[in-house]
Amino acid sequence: MASVAAGVPQPAGGVQNSAPLPSRAVARAFSIEDLRRLARRRLPRGVFDLFDGGAEDEATLRDNRAAFERVRLMPKVLVDVSQVDTGTTLLGAPSAMPIAIAPTGAVGFGWRGGDCLIARAAQAYGLPYSLSTSGTASIERIAEAAPNTRRWFQAYILKQREFTMRLVERAQRAGYEGLMITVDLAVGGKRERDYRNDFAIPFRFTPRNVFDCAQRPTWAFDMLLRGMPVMENLVGITPTATDTRGIASTVGRNYDPSFDWSALREVRDAWGGKLIVKGIVRPDDAIRAAELGADAVIVSNHGGRQLDGGVATLDALPGVVAAVGQRVEVYVDGGVRRGVDVVKALALGARAVLIGRPTLYGVCAGGEAGALRALEILRSEFVRAMQLCGVTSVAQIGPDLLAAPAALRVSG
Ligand SMILES: Cc1cc2nc3c(=O)[nH]c(=O)nc-3n(C[C@H](O)[C@H](O)[C@H](O)COP(=O)(O)O)c2cc1C
Known about the structure:
TIM Barrel; two-stranded antiparallel sheet; 19 helices; binds flavin mononucleotide
């Protein structure tokens, strides 16, 4: 388990030797927001907005973040925090921190090969990595790129159910320990930034986005010369097996809106490993997922990209923990941008957080060095937050660290 000396945050094992040298700008990124700004400078607006944006008025996107900012802590003092252990277990196996990488699609549009680079960064930091169905690297390629990472495969249940089940079998064969079923995407969310930017996958040049891409010639030349990334897991979903781009874009349209609890049970029965249900905010749904045999639930609203007006995940967390926290592991994602956010989520009852955009911004800012930088920022902030809260292990992070009114939500 990772242990650090006070005030001297050190990279997890192997990072120093294997990390590519970061660009000056990446090395001078001190927060996830700094990496976000660098990503914005590198990418055409349409690509940046694809990653950064949410649904409709983005009220839920903003509130995910605001919910973390609303929570205040009651730090303990005069505790010996010269040694801090950030390690924990997730689904019965070790994780160097209570953090896992959330699945994100289309990463390769931000940095070619970005999925593998984020997976390698997760490996370097000893964290579980989730691969999206609509990722731009195949199940097998991720397993090759990061063989020692704990891997979870996130499946969208597509109308072509057999196709989904073949992906699940491939994940099992490739040594993925967890199957994550995302349940908050019965239909695609209305992401208006993409409409305004004329951004779609397959990518088509239009007068608006040609102008946009011309502002970022390095990105545009790379895409023109080497071709647009492909959502490799979706190869074969159509009769035109060699060109998946047309279909890959339509995960939203291919998603099966009739997918329900009984269908989830069938998936559960077909999968021998750990089952994680992602996208739950209601206690009654969490109870159903637990009864069905889920090993973990993720309190998530897809990073504010689906139902705008949905509850902030941190606000939903205590209710879900109260309902099922004794039976399954409860994780939360959406809006984690600081190490102290991990302390807040754990104090409110989460076993771990997942991060989507932080490593995405990192990889878009500077490839592997940027993804590593994102994790280093969060790791060092988390260690510092633990030390400043007077706790030396993850197990010591509890509701007693919460100031009212967050404390009231947990106690009753
Ligand atoms: C660009 C992007 C793509 C995403 N793609 C997926 C996906 O394919 N499957 C999925 O379950 N969630 C997907 N998500 C949601 C994330 O898994 C996660 O729930 C969310 O990003 C967490 O919020 P955060 O970005 O504020 O950390 C995506 C999020 C983003 C930003």
